[in-house]
Design goal:
Alpha-Beta Plaits; 10-stranded mixed beta sheet; 14 strands
């Protein structure tokens, strides 16, 4: 066969069965690359393979013992995995060069290495190689003496939460003075507030999964002094390096809600996928939120002017003063979808408002020194502020 002759000429006959079989993978049928090479009537040189330097000899029992020792040490629970490998750059370059010179459409050397290791692990561990979604990645470094590292992929849990008391942030808030390092002002906790919606959930999930740390991804957030009522706000909790993946979420949900009774509640906990944490942060054109606001006016307001508030529709909001230190200063256009009011007394009324996500309600009421136009205070002709705010619905669209 002409191709075999060309390969042997380019390598001076110094080629192993793995590399020769791989070069012929689209030309000769066989169970694997070694069997393809063995089907040829040629004598293999005892010299070191010019392409791989006999790297396949490193895939031996000693390497697999290292893999199993690492898995036993980590005590990691998994059902699916993939293999990754590192090899000397010179080997990779020689492999790429000969494939290019012969104009072959065959797999690179690392792919064969990964497959050989993966197949044996599948057979001996009874686990599945899954390229789309895997619990762990077994990384094998074959440069010099083989080394093994196991990467534990995150676990993602989706749900909704209610915040039933004021003064709790959504996520852990580092101390403003020490930036999380710990000081007298924060009682050496490193935190501005003792707990958060995130921590009241994550501490229990981390314990159940034996995870390293948690990261909370919410579909927006409410201010610290705002309640989150109704069916709750969607979130995804990301657990990094979980050693236990099979947990009873229904049981955990019940236990966590009992512990946090009166403060926070979590609903419909379920396992989800990585991309979900980004999806819940993107609002569709049909997404909306409903708020209930207690409005306090500096002077008595004209109750007849409350009807004018229902005409509020397109709102132009420059980044509010209170968040200008962390958000880009620009004008955002948002829309009021529905608004109704209920009189309490001559200086107080309750406003229920349905809006597009991202509209700042406190600033819609006060005007924020003219940065929010139009606004409730201007419509009523008196200074007005939001004394209390509750989120009562976050749409799922």
């Amino acid at each position: 066969m002409q191709l075999v002759t060309e390969i042997l000429e380019k390598t001076d006959g110094k080629i192993c069965k793995h590399c020769l079989g791989r070069m012929l993978s689209k030309t000769i049928d066989g169970e694997d690359n070694v069997s393809r090479a063995e089907s040829l009537d040629i004598e293999f040189s005892p010299d070191e393979c010019m392409i791989c330097g006999n790297i396949f000899d490193k895939i031996d029992d000693e390497l697999f013992d290292k893999i199993y020792d690492k898995l036993d040490f980590l005590k990691v629970e998994f059902d699916s995995f993939i293999v990754g490998s590192r090899i000397d750059k010179e080997i990779q370059k020689r492999d790429e060069d000969i494939i290019s010179q012969l104009n072959l459409d065959v797999e690179p050397i690392k792919k064969e290495i990964n497959r050989i290791i993966g197949k044996r692990l599948e057979k001996e561990l009874g686990k599945e190689v899954n390229f789309e979604k895997q619990d762990i990645i077994v990384n094998v470094n074959l440069i010099k003496d083989p080394k093994v590292r196991v990467q534990i992929n995150p676990l993602f849990i989706e749900g909704k939460y209610n915040k039933l008391v004021r003064g709790i942030p959504q996520t852990k808030w580092p101390c403003g003075k020490c930036k999380g390092r710990g000081c007298e002002e924060c009682n050496f906790t490193g935190k501005q507030y003792p707990c958060s919606v995130e921590e009241l959930l994550s501490e229990h999930i981390l314990k159940a999964t034996d995870g390293y740390e948690a990261k909370f991804h919410g579909a927006g957030r409410e201010d610290i002094d705002v309640l989150m009522l109704g069916s709750g706000r969607p979130f995804v909790l990301e657990i990094k390096e979980p050693k236990i993946r099979k947990i009873d979420l229904n049981k955990l949900e019940t236990e966590i809600n009992e512990i946090n009774k009166g403060k926070t509640q979590y609903h419909n906990l379920k396992f989800t996928y990585r991309n979900r944490k980004a999806e819940i942060k993107v609002s569709s054109p049909d997404a909306y939120k409903v708020y209930k606001a207690l409005v306090e006016c500096e002077d008595a307001y004209d109750t007849e002017k409350l009807a004018d508030l229902s005409q509020l529709r397109e709102i132009h909001q420059q980044t509010p003063i209170r968040v200008s230190h962390r958000r880009a200063d620009k004008v955002r256009i948002k829309h009021v979808l529905d608004l109704s009011c209920e009189v309490i007394d001559e200086t107080h009324f309750e406003m229920t408002i349905k809006t597009e996500g991202g509209l700042y309600i406190k600033e819609l009421i006060s005007g924020d020194e003219g940065r929010s136009q139009p606004n409730v205070a201007d419509k009523l002709g008196v200074k007005a502020v939001c004394k209390q705010l509750d989120v009562i619905e976050v749409s799922e669209k």
